[in-house]
């Protein structure tokens, strides 16, 4: 992954926050000028927002800047964020969205996203990549008993998102596409740096 673009800014801010906390909470005798304002602990621990060539954010141009952190208690489901913890069901057994990647890419489509899952399954075979496609619907392979998936991750009923193996959302679309296979192929090629 792109350490310089993704992880380094996070690491620098975390170190800065650790020092500011040390000065303000443990040793106030140290110089306190130029200390960064303290950020929310939970956001620092679980709310990293990554920005690199391995993140495809179709809505980035609508924002003035990509923040380094978001409040994980109010997840956006935006590309570059960790997938929010949502309890789904597989064959009546609870499964967290955090447990789905397991060493490969995961495509999660909402109830009307059958075209996305078909495209994902075909792409996994054609590109020979570890990609599992799931449709979250009463008749899909994953169920959404609390109905939180669509609203929490910001996809519409025909939308989908792509999780990287590290559980970070690499790409998201809120609705259908004229050619889902071509769009997903483009997204996967960019995320995996393939021509």
CATH class of the domain at 52-66 and 75-191: Alpha Beta
Write down the overall geometry.
elongated
C-alpha end-to-end distance: 17 Å
Structural class: alpha+beta
- The stretches of 5 or more residues where confidence is low (pLDDT under 50) are none
Question: Count of DSSP E strands?
Answer: 6
Reading side by side through the largest sheet, how are the strands ordered? 4-3-5-6
Helix percentage range = 25-40%
Major sheet size, sense and barrel closure = 4 strands, mixed
* Total DSSP helices: 5
What is the gist of this entry?
The chain has 195 residues and is of the alpha+beta class. It contains five helices and six strands.
Question: How would you characterize the overall build of this protein?
Answer:
- The protein is of the alpha+beta class and 195 residues long.
- The chain has a domain at 52-66 and 75-191: Glutaredoxin.
- It is 31% helix and 14% strand.
- It has five helices and six strands, in the order H-H-E-E-E-H-E-H-E-E-H.
- The strands form two sheets. Strands 4-3-5-6 form a four-stranded mixed sheet, covered by helices on one side.
- The longest helix has 23 residues, at 3-25.
- The radius of gyration is 19 Å and the shape is elongated.
- The chain starts with a helix and ends with a helix.
- 29% of the residues are buried.
- The mean pLDDT is 89.
Could you list some keywords that capture this structure?
single chain, 195 residues, alpha+beta, two-stranded antiparallel ribbon, 6 strands, 31% helix, elongated
Write the layout of secondary structure elements.
Layout (H helix, E strand, L loop, with lengths): L2 H23 L15 H6 L40 E4 L2 E4 L8 E5 L4 H14 L3 E5 L13 H5 L6 E4 L5 E5 L6 H12 L4
Parallel strand pairs: 3-4
Antiparallel strand pairs: 1-2, 3-5, 5-6
Helix pairs in contact: 3-5
């Amino acid at each position: 992954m792109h350490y310089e673009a993704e992880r380094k800014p996070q690491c620098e801010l975390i170190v800065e926050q650790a020092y500011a906390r040390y000065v303000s909470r443990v040793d106030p005798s140290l110089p306190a000028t130029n200390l960064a304002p303290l950020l929310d602990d939970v956001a620092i621990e679980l709310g990293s927002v990554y920005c690199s060539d391995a993140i495809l954010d179709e809505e980035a141009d609508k924002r003035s800047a990509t923040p380094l952190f978001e409040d994980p208690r109010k997840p956006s489901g935006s590309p570059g964020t960790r997938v929010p913890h949502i309890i789904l069901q597989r064959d009546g057994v609870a499964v967290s969205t955090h447990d789905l990647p397991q060493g490969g890419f995961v495509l999660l489509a909402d109830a009307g996203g059958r075209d996305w899952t078909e495209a994902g399954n075909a792409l996994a075979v054609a590109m020979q990549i570890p990609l599992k496609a799931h449709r979250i619907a009463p008749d899909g392979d994953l169920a959404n008993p609390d109905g939180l998936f669509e609203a929490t991750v910001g996809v519409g009923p025909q939308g989908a998102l792509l999780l990287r193996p590290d559980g970070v959302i690499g790409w998201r679309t809120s609705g259908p596409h004229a050619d889902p296979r071509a769009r997903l192929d483009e997204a996967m090629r960019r995320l995996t740096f393939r021509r």
